[in-house]
Write a structure and sequence with these properties.
single chain; about 375 residues; alpha/beta; 3 domains; nine-stranded mixed sheet; about 25% strand
Length: about 375
């Protein structure tokens, strides 16, 4: 990795156009930049005739969370995950619920800093089983995330990407060679929704989902934030869940999450719990084995059910595990059906705690 002053590193996914612009080839936005211009994500810029990442090693904060908060319900349940993000985003979601980070244009957001090696050592010392690239999309800090992942794998720490999946084919393949799990935010299931509410397109996200499921060993879960009047129709939920079953299979967990008014969509009401319950019922009807509700208090929607005999395998209340009926390898103790996921002996005991971590080094 070539290092420049002020947390700037060179990148490799770009090419020069005939008109003199430099095109960033990291995501399907394909920003075309002249010298000293920044891309839509704001953190990738054209400097010295190349695309650079301007936030390498800088973070908007570090925090230890329950892995279920990512949300991942089938990946090392009950364990602690070190979470962090940087600034900027390659989407323009009007409903962004982390807008203060993803839409940041000021360096004050990046108050913390850490080398990949320090992050890995800190995660190990604090007994985190994994590290999550989250809060803003790791697509935009591709190089930093990969270096952190390498350092973590050397210490036996697994890696998690929380992402919208809006990335080009070549960088996608490189990135996911270093990831153990991903939660992909499938924001809606229409081109209209993606175009007008996120400033992007649906098809590249579907291609990321297909790639992860069919060409990698990355554990995959999906989140769908349901927004009243925008992506909550029965027709759209039917189409989305049927597509998931047909193209990804029945064993990919799907989380239906509640919207709350934020950023540029404060005029809409919060998602009713009944809407989430209906979405979960549609998913189960269409054959998805593990469908959940999120951002609401719903123990039934939090619980993992055996697809073989219907027994409750993992009973949750928010992020607390209340009961565990799986073998060490993830099989139902009643009928021996394998529960899909990544399980390693007894569940963790981290619970619902959230613990901020302050790291500060000179980058």
């Amino acid at each position: 990795m070539v290092q420049f002053p002020n947390s700037i590193v060179a990148t490799k996914y770009w090419h020069r156009l005939d008109d003199g612009h430099i095109q960033c080839d990291l995501c399907p936005r394909f920003c075309k930049l002249r010298e000293n211009q920044r891309g839509m994500c704001f953190v990738r810029a054209c400097q010295d005739g190349q695309i650079v990442l301007t936030t390498y090693g800088r973070s908007s904060g570090f925090c230890i969370d329950p892995i279920e908060k990512k949300p991942l319900n089938h990946f090392l349940p009950g364990t602690a995950v070190m979470s962090f993000g940087t600034a900027g985003c390659n989407l323009a979601c009007k409903f962004c619920q982390n807008w203060d980070i993803s839409k940041s244009r000021v360096t004050d957001t990046l108050a913390d800093a850490a080398t990949p090696e320090l992050l890995a050592r800190t995660s190990k010392s604090l007994h985190c089983r994994s590290i999550a690239f989250t809060y803003n999309d790791p697509v935009v800090f591709h190089e930093y995330a990969i270096d952190v992942a390498r350092a973590c794998h050397e210490l036996g720490i697994k890696t998690v990407a929380v992402t919208a999946g809006y990335v080009c084919e070549e960088p996608r393949a490189e990135f996911y060679r270093y990831m153990d799990a991903a939660n992909v935010d499938l924001k809606g299931f229409s081109e209209r929704f993606y175009k007008y509410l996120t400033g992007s397109h649906l098809q590249p996200v579907l291609e990321t989902l297909l790639y992860l499921r069919n060409e990698t060993d990355v554990w995959l879960e999906i989140t769908n934030l349901i927004i009243p009047g925008e992506n909550d129709s029965e027709q759209e939920l039917e189409a989305m869940t049927q597509w998931i079953v047909e193209h990804l299979g029945r064993d990919v967990p799907v989380h239906f999450s509640a919207f709350h008014p934020d950023w540029k969509m404060k005029n809409l009401p919060p998602t009713p719990t009944a809407t989430l319950t209906r979405a979960r019922e549609i998913a189960l009807k269409n054959g998805i084995h593990h469908a959940y509700t999120g951002n609401v208090h719903d123990p039934a929607g939090d619980t993992t059910i055996c697809s073989g005999c219907g027994a409750a395998l993992i009973v949750r209340d928010w992020y607390e595990l209340k009961a565990w009926h799986l073998s060490g390898t993830g099989r139902c103790q009643r009928c021996n059906t394998q529960c899909p996921g990544v399980f390693d002996g007894a569940p963790g005991t981290w619970g619902a705690r959230r613990m901020p971590v302050r790291l500060s080094v000179t980058i």
